[in-house]
Write a structure and sequence with these properties.
The complex is a heterodimer of chains A (213) and B (243). Chain A is α+β, with helices and mostly antiparallel strands. Helices cover 29% and strands 27% of the residues of chain A. Chain A contains six helices and nine strands. Chain A is globular, with a radius of gyration of 16 Å. Chain B is an alpha+beta fold. Chain B contains ten helices and five strands, in the order H-H-E-E-H-H-E-H-E-E-H-H-H-H-H. Chain B has helices at 5-17, 24-34, 63-71, 79-84, 101-112, 142-168, 181-191, 196-203, 207-220, 226-235; strands spanning 39-44, 56-59, 91-92, 118-125, 131-138. In chain B, helix 8 (196-203) crosses helix 9. Chain B is elongated and about 60 Å long. The chains are: A alpha+beta (213), B alpha+beta (243). At the A-B interface, strand 5, strand 8 and helix 6 of A face strand 3, helix 6, helix 7 and helix 9 of B.
Chain lengths: 213, 243
């Protein structure tokens, strides 16, 4: 199940948010060796102060956070514009209220082995389906994201191929890309078909009236 | 992207309305008329252009309601405003439980003043982190409202930002927008009558990437659609007029 947490709901989900920052520390600092700041085991950056929208995949059995990502509109402060402009053609940012940015995609190591019947990671598929569902109810056309070569392969096998915009660069240990994802009913259908997810992954966090939209 | 006929009609009228001395409330009324809405409202909170303590407000609401809202200091308790300022998803007004007397009073009075039985608020985030809200209200039946949201969300997202620029940056395009080389190339081919598919072949990019460059260029030029953006790009000498 995916829960979507916006600025105003952050306090209510303080434990889940903390778990997410802990997973981010282990993925981005320890495993990928990115130059990120970790304090008390939590990876937090300036964009977390910009009231982003977090998507968290929760284990339905115990409520543990399996994985997470962070969404920000490209019209405001965002990582691609402010941190990774080198990935874009001539550093010119992509900017539109109908294009959001997804960053800090991470899966907890204990949930790396949890697979769908088709052999894909459960948390990854849920998060990808979650981006599509949220994107549709926000009226988006695209989501841009910064990711590495390993993630590119996962995305492809999850029925969610991205088109690279700009120039791939080596960051830390890995080749890093800025990719473009379609937000559409058909893109959502592809992810569902590849992963075997049936129906909406969004939990009760999304108000009824919006979900029906 | 596909936009509706009424969107195109509205763009033509908004373009005429939006002169340097244009009346912003009149533009909002135009939007309301075209989308069969009771009211349209804009609230700019942390704007660099606005040095006053008060937020920048532009609404089609009756004056009596605006005065009442001010007098009662409803802005302090209005749950739609409080939630939307820290959100990025649009908020449906019907999703707020009417907890507390004051909030019940606020929603009850809004109804009495004919604001509408349902509404949707879009949070807006600007380049420097400024925030604003764009709201639409209607008297539609529940099922019509649902259908309205389903079909009009993308257009309303674009209109919301257009209104934000119109009101918060009154001297339009004072500064030439910073378009990337790819965005300019895509616009140039667009001006020459090429489709996104054609441009993708010409520039050896995917159609998806071309569409994203065009959408980003549209936004930076504050065009309501690509044609509108191409016209503005020509006026700014960013691209040459087609021969």
């Amino acid at each position: 199940m995916i829960i979507a947490i916006q600025g105003a709901e952050r306090e209510r989900f303080a434990a889940e948010i903390e778990a997410m920052h802990r997973i981010r520390a282990s993925v981005f600092a320890d495993r990928l060796e990115w130059d990120v700041e970790v304090v008390n085991g939590l990876e937090i950056d300036v964009f977390d102060e910009c009231n982003p929208l977090y998507l968290l995949s929760l284990d339905p059995w115990n409520g543990n956070v399996r994985g997470a990502l962070r969404l920000l509109p490209t019209t405001g402060p965002n990582m691609l514009r402010d941190v990774f402009p080198c990935l874009l053609a001539d550093g010119a940012p992509i900017e539109s209220p109908r294009i959001w940015e997804s960053t800090r995609f991470c899966v907890h190591k204990d949930y790396m082995a949890e697979r769908t019947p088709s052999g894909l990671n459960v948390a990854t598929c849920e998060l990808l389906a979650g981006i599509e569902e949220i994107g549709l109810l926000a009226g988006l056309e695209f989501v841009v994201s910064v990711y590495d070569a390993r993630m590119a392969r996962i995305l492809k096998s999850a029925g969610c191929p991205a088109d690279i915009v700009g120039e791939p660069q080596r960051i830390g240990k890995v080749m890093t890309y800025a990719g473009l994802f379609d937000i559409s009913e058909s893109a959502l259908a592809n992810i569902r078909a590849a992963s075997g997810i049936k129906g909406s992954v969004l939990g009760d966090m999304i108000p009824r009236s919006l979900k029906a939209a | 992207m596909v936009t509706s006929e009424r969107y195109h009609n509205m763009i033509a009228l908004l373009g005429k309305e939006q002169q340097p001395s244009g009346d912003n409330t009149k533009s909002l009324k135009l939007i309301a008329e075209h989308y069969n809405l009771t009211h349209v409202a804009y609230l700019g909170v942390a704007l660099p252009s606005n040095t006053a303590d008060e937020p920048l407000v532009c609404v089609t609401y009756p004056d009596e309601w605006v005065q009442r809202y001010r007098k009662e200091r409803y802005v302090r308790i209005d749950p739609v405003i409080h939630k939307s300022l820290t959100s990025i998803l649009p908020t449906d007004w019907n999703d707020f439980p009417l907890h507390g007397k004051r909030i019940q009073q606020l929603f009850g009075e809004a109804r009495e003043f004919g604001i509408g039985t349902n509404g949707l608020t879009f949070p807006i985030r600007g380049r420097l982190g400024e925030t604003a809200l764009f709201s639409v209200a209607s008297e539609m039946t529940a099922s019509d409202w649902k259908e309205f949201k389903r079909t009009n969300l993308p257009e309303l997202q674009m209109i919301g930002f257009y209104v934000h620029r119109m009101i918060s940056e009154p001297v339009e395009l004072n500064e030439t927008p910073r378009l990337g080389p790819r965005e300019i190339e895509c616009l140039k081919w667009c001006a020459a009558g090429k489709t996104a598919e054609d441009i993708a072949v010409i520039l050896n990019l995917s159609t998806k990437t071309v569409r994203a460059y065009l959408e980003s260029a549209r936004h930076k030029l504050n065009g309501l659609n690509i044609t509108h953006a191409v016209v503005k790009a020509i006026a700014l000498n960013l691209i040459a007029p087609p021969i």
